[in-house]
Design goal:
The structure is a single chain. The protein is mainly alpha-helical. About 45% of the residues lie in helices and about 0% in strands. α1 crosses α2. The longest helix has 14 residues.
Length: about 60
């Protein structure tokens, strides 16, 4: 599987606000990535989700 390459994306006008829970470890990892790439936490989360959905094995 190809690795995810994070890019700076403009804000989408089609967005939904939703609260989620995640582990502190996951939060820290995403925060670190966002800081290193100089992009928002939200941008990183959305790209991770989009990548995961695109590469989801729907047979299982």
């Amino acid at each position: 599987m190809d690795k995810l390459k994070l890019v700076i994306k403009s804000k989408s006008k089609d967005s939904v606000a939703r609260t989620i829970r995640m582990s502190g470890t996951t939060f820290d990892k995403i925060t670190e990535i966002a800081d290193k790439k100089a992009i928002s936490f939200n941008n990183v989360v959305n790209q991770l989700i989009e990548y995961s959905l695109s590469n989801l094995d729907e047979e299982n």
